């Protein structure tokens, strides 16, 4: 009779962190409702800097030292005097009478009062402070002056909500009434605008993992001050730039990893990255240490009392970084320095460097959470060198050859073991004779058996005793404990690693850190996202995660990596609690008797001799796997501080310090100077506009500058009279009275142009009868770009967004900067919406979106190239855009195999054509949503985002 075939249906699941919650974050677009509620947070270092006790008359440490020494001397002297007088005066009696006993009791009470009442405590505290002056310390330029620093306290806004499960669900097609429920899959539902404004950061939702764009210092401060996550992170992993070379630390392109230092073409043009570089490397290593110390201080505040922090570093600055961590965390909380093998050795005149390092500190070493990791013994490992004997299947034994031990020759069938001593140091008072194979054995002088005679008999019964020469030895088989504890030297951590990012870390390195110091459901934080390896590994092992980066390029890579990832589904002990309930571990063996499960025996001599149950060890990296379930990344959000780390009102002006207005004013002056020297604006289609007489308006609230343009310039709508007048003026060399006045507004220096900035500038420009508004910025928010496109209809004045080359911010970082083509116009993505005929009369309408292409501005060549829709790194579709947060309903990665893993797993569940469109430029059909509009977001090679919004009423039949 034929056997029934097992079901091959594959389910797609993701973990939900039921026990964990987080404040609800508001969607982007609601930031104008947030006023300046929280002042910048101030963090202070120990005011006793300098730690050196310099007795030169020029350092205040001298006076402090003398004062503390006097305090110690007086307190200790007074203590001795009181104690001596009390004892001499009250305990003169020769014998202990009842009265003397009472006197002794009084002595004890007085001693307790002196030691616990504050006197001795003051002396000890003074001594402790005095010792701090004499400790060795690491000093650098600017450290003594930086006794404190301020960080803006800003809320975080959600830009995107992403979920692989939701994307897959849309492929099957849903009715409109069910499509709204679909967004529950994101783990963070669509709340109404009023809820987001009034209740953000006030009530709890189920936990959603988080990816954040912004300066790590600002984001971590927001987590502390706005969200109360202090003491919540179980592990923090920091992978800062190893050295001080700007070009080699940041990958400027999504598709290229061959980054070269000091090559202008390989320089990142992101304003945020340039600013971060200037903050971090302005004084070379001195600035770098300040940058790192500030972030370590906030990391310590975020760590749980049992938490751990790892800093990945090379040998170049290993010693400096450890000194800084000693200062921030305390030398007593140092855990370990781990060395791990790199892909290859760096070329050098001397020995090549083949390892990097992890510096591991605990928040509190006495309370640290730690899970021992184990690695399996493999043939050829040094851990097996001493296992040089084998018990063959026929019962005979022999010594293994060198080739067999090294793995150069096949291992014979049998049980491998080593012979160890049965004796311990220390002689017993009574003889312990033991008979084995008809011969009496006794322990040597000065030693004793490791177990009793009865225990030795049990060992003999289990064939655990063997004669070696004239002494008895204990047989310890490899199977007794087939693994060995992991040490501080990690080898072969880069095997099979396909690099996505220029400075990508091996997943195995981070995996070991996470498994050692966290449990499922714990929170892992990475302030240096890179390619998202920490988030990827945390997701794989059921940990919650937050990852942060200043650059858009690594975040674009990380989003793709997480959205298209597949993981094993580790069986949960308690499905209702999610990963926080723990994973299931079982002991299993294969046909050869080898341990293959997550629980292995730990058989010891003592357990056999005493007839006790064997101990077992849990291998935390081997939980049980459900084979019929493919796990994908759970819902996560993409967030940022908006519009800039220091701009509260969305007007491009810094609001977080008293010098903000002056700083912005200085930036406007610099931009005006550049615009006066390079007054040509390059528009689409190789058209240009030349600005004349650029100047600051006489009275203005929102505008940055004004200028004159010809009446027939692009963007103007001249009358016939004005055209004739302009021609006459040029031919007869008359005064240009026909010229028109245009308004100019500059976006922020280190952030994106906001919708409010555009609206306020356009309203003022319209009221003052300017003929056109030019908005010049380094980056722009999608809703601000949409307002510019529709400005003529909304405000009554046409507007144009002009992209300023980021080279203006690079300054002396570039060897050459083109003085021409500084200001250019880049168009929005071009899309087409098609309405499909319903299959039946009662079926709802369906739509499809095609990405035709978009213009890409190259800040190196200063040219605008057109790219077709199938030649972009990534593009996303929101089929029911609400004007606030972008819900990624469908994700497309053209010309890549990003979806291949999921495609293989779900081969039998979907038609081939379902996957083809995910690597193309045309979406799957979808039904209209509540808002009847779609949004398309395109990611270019530099990680920049361009978004276009269209109403479904614009669809072609």
Structural features, described:
This protein is α+β, with helices and mostly antiparallel strands and 957 residues long. The protein has 24 helices and 46 strands. Strand 45 and strand 46 (945-951) form a beta hairpin. Helix 1 packs antiparallel against helix 2, helix 7 (216-225) packs parallel to helix 9 (285-302) and helix 9 runs parallel beside helix 10. The two termini are 56 Å apart. Residues 1-7, 173-183, 246-273, 499-503, 643-650, 652-662 and 810-821 have low confidence and may be disordered.
Quick summary:
This protein is an alpha+beta fold. The strands form twelve sheets. Strands 23-10-11-9-8-24-25-7-30-5-43 form an eleven-stranded mixed sheet, with helices on both faces. It has an eight-stranded mixed sheet with strand order 32-31-38-37-36-35-34-33, sandwiched between helices.
Which secondary structure elements does this structure contain, and how are they paired or packed?
Elements: E1 11-13, E2 21-23, E3 41-44, H1 61-90, H2 98-116, H3 119-134, E4 148-151, E5 157-162, H4 164-171, H5 176-179, H6 193-199, E6 204-206, E7 209-213, H7 216-225, E8 233-238, H8 271-281, H9 285-302, E9 303-313, H10 318-329, E10 334-346, E11 353-362, E12 374-376, E13 389-392, E14 397-399, H11 402-406, E15 414-421, E16 423-425, E17 434-436, E18 439-441, E19 447-449, H12 453-461, E20 465-468, E21 471-477, E22 483-485, E23 489-490, H13 507-517, E24 523-526, H14 533-540, E25 544-549, H15 552-563, E26 566-570, E27 599-602, H16 605-609, E28 615-618, E29 625-632, E30 636-640, H17 660-677, E31 680-682, E32 688-690, E33 692-695, E34 705-709, H18 720-731, E35 740-746, H19 755-767, E36 773-777, H20 782-789, H21 791-794, E37 799-804, H22 807-810, E38 823-824, E39 830-836, E40 846-858, E41 863-868, E42 874-878, E43 886-887, E44 890-892, H23 900-905, H24 912-916, E45 933-939, E46 945-951
Helix pairs in contact: 1-2, 1-3, 7-9, 9-10, 13-14, 19-20
């Amino acid at each position: 009779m034929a056997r029934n075939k097992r079901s091959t249906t594959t389910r797609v699941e993701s973990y939900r962190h039921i026990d964990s919650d987080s404040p609800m974050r508001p969607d982007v677009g609601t930031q104008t409702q947030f006023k300046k509620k929280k002042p910048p947070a101030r963090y202070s270092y120990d005011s006793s800097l300098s730690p050196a006790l310099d007795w030169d008359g020029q350092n205040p440490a001298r006076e402090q030292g003398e004062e503390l020494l006097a305090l110690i001397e007086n307190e200790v002297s007074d203590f001795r005097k009181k104690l001596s007088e009390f004892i001499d005066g009250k305990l003169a009696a020769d014998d202990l009478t009842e009265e003397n006993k009472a006197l002794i009791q009084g002595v004890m009470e007085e001693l307790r009062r002196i030691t616990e009442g504050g006197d001795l405590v003051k002396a000890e505290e003074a001594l402790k402070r005095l010792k701090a002056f004499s400790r060795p310390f690491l000093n650098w330029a600017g450290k003594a002056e930086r006794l404190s620093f301020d960080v803006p306290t800003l809320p975080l806004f959600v830009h995107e909500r992403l979920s692989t499960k939701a994307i897959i669900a849309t492929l099957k097609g849903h009715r409109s009434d069910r499509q709204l429920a679909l967004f529950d899959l994101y783990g963070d539902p669509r709340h109404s605008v009023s809820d987001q404004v009034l209740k953000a950061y006030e009530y709890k939702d189920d936990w959603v993992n988080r990816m954040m764009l912004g300066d790590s210092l600002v984001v971590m401060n927001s987590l502390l001050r706005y969200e109360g996550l202090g003491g919540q992170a179980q592990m923090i992993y920091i992978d800062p730039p190893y050295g001080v070379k700007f070009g080699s630390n940041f990958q400027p392109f999504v598709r290229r990893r061959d980054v070269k230092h000091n090559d202008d073409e390989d320089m990142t043009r992101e304003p945020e990255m340039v600013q971060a570089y200037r903050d971090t490397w302005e004084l070379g290593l001195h600035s770098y240490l300040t940058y790192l110390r500030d972030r370590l201080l906030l990391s310590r505040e975020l760590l749980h009392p049992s938490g751990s922090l790892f800093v990945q570093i090379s040998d170049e600055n290993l010693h400096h970084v450890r000194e800084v961590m000693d200062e921030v965390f305390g030398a007593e909380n140092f855990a370990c320095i781990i060395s791990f093998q790199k892909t290859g050795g760096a070329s050098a005149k001397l020995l090549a460097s083949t390892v990097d390092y992890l510096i591991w500190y605990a928040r509190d070493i006495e309370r640290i959470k730690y899970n021992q990791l184990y690695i399996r013994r493999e043939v050829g490992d040094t851990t097996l060198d001493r296992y040089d004997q084998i018990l063959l299947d026929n019962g005979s034994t022999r010594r293994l050859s060198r080739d067999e031990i090294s793995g150069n020759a096949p291992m014979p069938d049998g049980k491998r073991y080593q012979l160890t001593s049965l004796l311990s140091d220390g002689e017993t008072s009574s003889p312990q004779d033991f008979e084995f194979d008809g011969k009496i054995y006794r322990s040597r002088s000065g030693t004793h058996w490791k177990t009793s005679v009865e225990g030795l008999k049990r060992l003999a019964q289990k064939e655990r005793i063997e004669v070696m020469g004239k002494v008895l030895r204990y047989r310890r088989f490899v199977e007794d404990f087939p693994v060995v504890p992991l040490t501080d030297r990690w080898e072969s951590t880069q095997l099979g690693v396909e690099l996505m990012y220029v400075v990508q870390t091996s997943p195995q390195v981070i995996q070991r850190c996470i498994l050692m110091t966290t449990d499922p459901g714990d929170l892992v934080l990475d302030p240096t996202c890179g390619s998202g390896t920490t988030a990827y590994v945390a997701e794989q092992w059921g940990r919650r995660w937050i990852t942060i980066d200043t650059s858009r390029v690594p975040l674009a890579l990380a989003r793709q990596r997480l959205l298209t990832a597949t993981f094993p589904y580790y069986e949960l002990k308690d499905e209702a609690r999610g990963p926080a309930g723990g994973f299931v571990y079982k002991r299993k063996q294969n046909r050869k008797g080898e341990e293959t499960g997550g629980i292995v025996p730990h058989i010891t001599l003592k357990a056999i001799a005493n007839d006790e149950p064997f101990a077992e060890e849990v291998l935390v990296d081997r939980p049980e796997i459900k084979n019929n379930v493919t796990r994908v990344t759970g819902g996560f959000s993409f967030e940022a501080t908006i519009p800039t780390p220091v701009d509260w009102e969305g007007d491009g002006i810094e609001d977080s310090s008293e010098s903000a207005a002056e700083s912005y004013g200085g930036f406007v002056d610099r931009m005006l100077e550049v615009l006066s020297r390079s007054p040509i604006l390059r528009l689409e289609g190789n058209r240009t506009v030349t600005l004349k007489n650029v100047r600051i308006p006489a009275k203005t609230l929102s505008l940055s500058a004004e200028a004159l343009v010809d009446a027939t310039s692009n963007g103007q709508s001249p009358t016939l009279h004005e055209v004739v007048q302009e021609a006459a003026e040029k031919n007869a060399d008359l005064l240009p009275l026909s010229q028109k006045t245009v308004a100019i507004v500059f976006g922020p220096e280190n952030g994106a142009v906001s919708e409010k900035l555009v609206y306020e500038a356009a309203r003022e420009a319209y009221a003052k009868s300017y003929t056109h508004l030019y908005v010049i910025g380094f980056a722009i928010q999608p809703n601000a770009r949409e307002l510019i496109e529709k400005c003529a209809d909304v405000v009554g004045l046409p507007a144009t967004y002009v992209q300023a080359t980021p080279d203006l911010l690079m300054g002396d970082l570039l060897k050459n900067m083109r003085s021409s083509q500084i200001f250019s116009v880049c168009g929005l993505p071009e899309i087409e919406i098609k309405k499909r005929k319903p299959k039946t009369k009662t079926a709802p309408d369906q739509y499809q979106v095609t990405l035709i292409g978009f213009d890409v501005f190259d800040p190196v060549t200063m040219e605008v190239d057109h790219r077709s829709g199938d030649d972009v790194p990534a593009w996303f579709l929101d089929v029911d855009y609400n004007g606030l947060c972008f819900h990624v309903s469908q994700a497309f990665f053209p010309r890549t195999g990003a979806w291949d893993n999921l495609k293989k797993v779900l081969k039998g569940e979907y038609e081939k054509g379902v996957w083809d469109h995910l690597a193309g430029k045309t979406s799957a059909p979808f039904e209209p949503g509540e808002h009847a509009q779609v949004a398309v977001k395109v990611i270019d090679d530099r990680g920049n985002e361009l978004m276009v919004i269209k109403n479904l009423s614009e669809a072609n039949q």
